[in-house]
Structures are given as C-alpha cells and as structure tokens.
Amino acid sequence: MSGTPFLKMHGLGNDFVILDDRAGTLGLSPRRISMIAHRQLGVGCDQLIVLEKPTERDADVFMRIYNPDGGEAGACGNATRCVASLLMDERKTDHAIVQTISGLLESQKAGMGANGLPVIAVDMGPAKLDWRDIPVAKACDTRHMPVGIGPLQDPVGTSMGNPHATFFVDDLDSIPLAELGPQLEHHAFFPERANIGVAQMVGENKLRLRVWERGAGLTLACGSGACAAGVAASRRGLAGRRVEVVVEHGTLTIEWMRDNHVMMTGGIALSYKGELAAQLPA
Question: Which listed site, 8, 31, 41, 105, has its alpha carbon 20 to 30 Å from 234?
C-alpha cells in the first residue's frame, strides 16, 4: 500500500482521511483502518472515508465510513459534504449524489462562506423517530426516553442512519461528556450503542452542541448529531424546524423539512494531501 494517496479534509473540525478505492485494490483491514486513524501512530482522523464504485445507477460514488475502532458507521454528514465537494470539483458540477449503506444522499453547492471556503448542503434523508428504528431496548416515546446517568437524563432519540440520543441541559460546559459519553454509548438501553449529544439552547432557534460519537469519542463537530439535535429541539418545542447548531469551530444550519428529510448546510475544507507509508501494519 506504499504511496497510496489520501486527502485530509474536515467539516468544522470534524476531520477525515479520504481514500479513493474506486479501482477496488486497497484491501483495508480493521487493523489498518485503526492505524491510519490513530493520531499518534497514523494520520489521525475522526473517521476514515473510502470511496468505492456506486452500486446504484443514480449515485456518483459509494462512500464507506469507518470509525477509529475499525467498525463501520452508517452515516456521517460532514464527511458527506466533503466527499460531495470533491465530486463536484471532479465533475465540474454543482450537484452530487453520494451512496452510503444508509441510502442515497443528495448534495449541492450553497455558495462560499465568509472565510472563502465552500459551503455544501446535503439532504441527510428522513429522520427516523420510532423506538424500533433507533433502536432502543424497549418501547417508549422517543421524545422522552427513560435512560440517563447523573446530570444527563430524559434524552430525545433519533436515527439519522445511525442512532442518536440528544440530552438538553442548561449549562453545556458543566457536563463531563468525556466521562459520561462512553457510559451512555454502551448503555444496555442502546443495543447497537449510540451517539450521545448534549445540547444547550442559547437563543431563538439556536443551540450549542457537543457529541460523544459512537466508536470515535469526542469530536469537534458531528453532522448527523447536529441533524439529530435540530430534530430533537423541534420535537420538544424548543425551536422551529430550522435551527443554527453551534459547534466549536463554526455553525451548521439544520432544517427539518415537512417531508421529514433533514437538510444540513455548512462549510468544508481541504487540510492537506499526502501518501500512506508502507510501514503502517496490515
């Protein structure tokens, strides 16, 4: 695998290593995935993204998403926006369709940000709200799920192709998410584990968000988590259907459409290009 090119990209700090395997020659093992994602021993990223040939006629590419633990993820909104931007540049178009294991995601250019970087909007598909779809261990109203630890109680459940539990708090900075996140991720209430979001309303239709990502830990931003938080705020009556979600390095606009699809809009950036060394173990 010596000399295999990669791109390092991020969406508001949520960072990715992107490999092009449309030729089908990489043969990535879970151990190699973990090593590439390791921030001290490899390149380092929140998720490793592998581009493959699409299996659906309407799709431009198949995007496979791996967490740093080597496990596969079902959705990643910020990575989708990064990949869509690459495809648009490659194809000289303003529109792209990205296939994932959770479905087809349509994206389009939405102008340039104040920092001069591209802004990409992606239709993240429908929000799934039934307890069986998230999934959780027993029947419940997913607007008020009976699970929690310490100051994190009474979350809203949402599936955006991956499971999310969003907790609303009065003081986001007081929550020890690095301590509580892994406990809740692995709680028996979530048979497939869960992404744990903690949100604080900071204005009309505006919230701050931190997310402990399933299989990745604390990240600077989480696109599907922002979508889940926007839907959760609307379902709780804390906001309308269009919400500004503030993360550490910027803001995502989330709109829960009347057809139940969730639109996410925000900036992306290319950090650098490189090549993977042969020393990374197989």
Answer: 105
